[in-house]
Amino acid sequence: MFFINETYSALNAATDKVVLLPLGAVEQHGPHLATGTDTHIVTQIAEAAERQRINDIILTPTLAYGSSHHHISFGGTISISADLYTQVLRELIASLIQAGFRKIILLNGHGGNITPARQALALLSKDFDTTVQPNIALATYWELAGTAFAGASPMESPALSHACEYETSLMLYLFPEKVSMEKVQRAARPGQNGYIPWEDDVPYKGVTMFKQTAFISSNGSSGEPQLGSSGKGAHLFNKATAALIQFIDDFKTWPLMRQLSSQ
Fold first, then answer.
1. Residues in the chain with pLDDT < 50?
2. Ordered domains of the chain (ranges, CATH)
3. Which end of the chain is less packed: N or C, by CB atoms within 10 Å?
């Protein structure tokens, strides 16, 4: 992992590599998980990928704070507002581009980061596509890993949500000392309406509605955290790491895209 005290020449010599910037969050995760859950998990996945692709990756320190205002009512949450988070990512990636890097992956570990991160990519496209043409991608680890995080065996609930079977299992595997299974309680949640996936158990139908967490969970968790286990966590961690490595192997070969309208 590269830190600020390493020389510019060392960084500049590796500008052909893929920069991996993990995105976490510090927010409540029900009564049983640490507030740093998202940051802990995504950092571990990124570091595992770096160990296996040490010659291909420049791994930055994790951006530990995310866009989590929807969790603030439960306490323990430290959040960056969505519009400021977009600007933070825009500035960080612009710094990497200024240093000469052209292939950058944001590895996301928190659902609330997705919309402002996509907005940052849209603005960065406007800023740089006609000049240096960088390839900048946002990859959320549980989406990248596909069915492993969407109900495939050995998981018993339909998808990763928040402080759920999936995140509880990952934390039991990676940081068991940060999990209090005796405090697990399945939260009261809104009933299904056929359109909005409050529990990630309704297929997306093009309908979006946003609510603060306190309106959709009685204790800040979701899903079935009582089903979590270390064995499931090991399975999920390996699937997430393998999916990330496969993506990096592909992404590093992608050519920088040239403007076609002038040809």
1. 3-5, 7-11, 13
2. 8-249 (3.40.50.10310)
3. C
